[in-house]
Design a protein that fits this description.
Length: 147
């Protein structure tokens, strides 16, 4: 019975991670080829999830201010688990793959690419704004084909 209960609790935790990220993406639009946000919006260190619709394609990404104070962005997908379309959820200072459960410290987002790591998304903080070029977002379209 104890093993059964542990399995149920584990499944519940996995399901809650999947729900948190999947389906909770705010739709954004590019203006003059740029998607921008007020940088202070991320001061609470909570991951924010976004999606951009372009030519019938949905592209998902997240932004987080990591423990070291850097605002980071990544596609809500990786080179390994992207076909599951489950993305990542946040657990404190870690981003967790909703498919395989791998954990990535927030300071590693945008630093590591390939494998089961959040796929980096180029971004820049400029004049108090987080700026992401539409072209850079569109470069991640392949992770979301079939979504």
């Amino acid at each position: 019975f104890i093993l059964f209960l542990a399995a149920i609790l584990t499944l519940g935790a996995v399901a809650s991670h999947a729900f948190f990220s999947f389906g909770s993406h705010e739709t954004v639009e590019a203006v003059d080829g740029i998607v921008s946000f007020d940088a202070e919006e991320f001061d609470d260190h909570k991951a924010r999830y976004y999606q951009l619709e372009h030519d019938g394609q949905t592209i998902r990404f997240f932004v987080i201010k990591s423990a070291d104070g850097v605002i980071r962005a990544a596609f809500d997908a990786c080179d390994v688990c992207w076909k599951s379309y489950k993305g990542y959820s946040q657990d404190g200072e870690f981003m967790v793959c909703n498919n395989c459960g791998r954990r990535f410290h927030s300071t590693m987002v945008n630093e590591v690419s390939g494998g089961c790591n959040p796929a980096p998304l180029t971004r820049e903080v400029k004049d108090g704004k987080l700026v992401i070029a539409l072209e850079d977002i569109l470069n991640g379209a392949g992770y979301f084909r079939g979504l």
